[in-house]
Amino acid sequence: MSSALYQTPTKTERYTSTAMLLHWVLAIALVGIFSLGLYMTSLPFSPQRLKLYNWHKWAGVAILGLSVLRLVWRISHRPPALPRAMERAMPAWQKVAHHATHHLLYVLFFAVPLIGWAYSSAAGFPIVFLGLWQLPDFVPVSKELAEAIKPWHELSAYAMAGLVALHVAAALKHQLIDRDGLLQRMLPGKH
Fold it and tell me: All domains of the chain, ordered by start, with CATH?
């Protein structure tokens, strides 16, 4: 696409302020929890590691809650369609990748924390959100089940990190190479 196609998105082509807020808060939370997960698993067993595991679980519960809010908002507030000129210029494989990435991210917004909750429950370590509210066990305590679930939490987290990286790369491509204004649809402020 050439820069001649760049047009500032109109209000109807932009996401709502609530959608933007949920997008960016969830994005920051995902980067934070993934980074924390990488760091805490590299630590030797210690009170610090246990504290970070609790924070990781609390963040996972918060992300699950944010994901519910984001999905409800998305269902009740249809996102703007791609601008016609952009959609016409986009190869079919990019359209498929665009939609598949978004759908898979939504699946993983729920799958990663739920698998983590199941692992924690199976391992016999209940989640006490913010140290105040104990959440019910998601599955029964079982060492065998915990060992079976553990790699799925890690694999799904890495899959989500990969999709987030792909999403960011695509947004940067649209902004820096295509110069088509697509990124402005999700940026706060007047455009």
Answer: 3-186 (1.20.950.20)
